[in-house]
Design goal:
Blueprint (H helix, E strand, L loop, with lengths): L6 H32 L9 H11 L12 H34 L10 H22 L19 H38 L6 H40 L6 H7 L1
Helix pairs in contact: 1-2, 2-3, 3-4, 3-5, 3-6, 5-6, 6-7
Keywords: Membrane, Transmembrane, Transmembrane helix
Organism: Compsopogon caeruleus
Main location: membrane
Length: 253
Amino acid sequence: MSSVLSTHQHELIHDASVGLGSLSALVSLLVIYVHVRLRLSKRPRDDPVLWLSVVCFFAPLSNMGIGRRSDPLCAMEAVANQFFYLASFLWVSCIAHQLYGVIVWSRTLHFRENMPVYHVFSWGIPSATVSLLLFLGQVQTDSSAEYDWCWIRPGPWRFALFYIPLIILLVLNALAYINISVTVYRRYRQNLLEAGQATPSSLGSRLLTLNWGLRASLYLFVFVVTRTGSIANRFQELAHPENPIFALRMMHV
């Protein structure tokens, strides 16, 4: 294995990837089940929260070290890592767009209105990056190499097709959610001030919209918290690809 991480550390990372990845996949599967079966009468199946859960089900499976078993599996793991990791942030951006429209622009929530665009955006961009990486031969395919999971080869293509989109999405989402949070706070204060003047129906409608926004934001809060470690590790890999840090690798899983 690597001269920086010991064999024991690599094994700990692998065991943590399998254990925590399995738990994450099961939680995502539960969210999918609840969303599709138990809430079917309340909302359409086809919405960004559902598809984010689908992506979060598959994403941990690409960090379980199956690429160690053979070169073809290493290539598959590398492709899955790029595809699902990038897709997860794209679906988060779709939820941000949906929230922004309802909370900030005061638009009526229509789940199906933007879904075709969301699907093209969130599946098309990862598919295009994966296709280009495969065409250029930039995915790792050596199952005996010194990495815990297979991904994009270090170099300019990793930066161009992963880090640049990731940085753009992180900045846009941060700006969107800051604006959403400020708007929710202002609307909440406004509702308190107008509680005695507004009609019960209009006040109830506004409170319902705010409550929906808060619930939808909860999905994103959990997503950001659980992805903080992996984001930190990815940027450490960008700065020092040949010198992995054990603590960040463990946080990644």
